[in-house]
Predict the structure.
Amino acid sequence: MLWYKGWLETRPRVLFLIAFAWLLSPPGQLAFLFALVPILLAGSGIETQFPWKTKKGPVSTYFTLSLPVSRFRLFATRAGLGMLETVGIFAIAPCAKWVLFIFIGAEDYVSRSDLFALWVSLSVCASAFYFLGVLVSAFLDERVSSTISIVAAGLLFSHSSPAPVNLYRAMVSPLSAHSLPWASMGISLGVAAVLGLAAWRVVQTREY
């Protein structure tokens, strides 16, 4: 039920982001825009995606808290669903563009191996951006949290950062380096783990 509820709440955004990512594929110098995909799909599991409001707070939050499940399960389901949607978008959009290249006879522009490496790199490096969004959305309204997450992502992982920390460059590096950015991927997973634990701690202790 929680997975289905989360899907109903996020599916319009997923469809929009599939089209958005397709337009960017292969992303080239537009890697920063790819970071918007995980940020816009991030959710804490308690503060859900409906914009409906009452004087006492969001209707969907009250409904979510009334469900006979633990906060950990709410958090894990919503965070897991958003990350799966992010990985799915990064798989669908580049592959769809590759099929288009075949149709127009330009399949040599991007090889299948490069596209697979691109998908792995995008998915792993996106985890840091995603859990940054999860952490911020755990204690701020969604309309505010997305903006703050985007600004924070730009400051923390900017193009001027050292090579392993420059996740924007790492996300699309397989297209030019034809190899996976292992150091950047490791840093991203480590950052994601820390941010995810911090977000869970906020959800666990917060009064809604």
Q: What stands out?
A: Residues 16 and 77 are 22 Å apart (CA to CA).
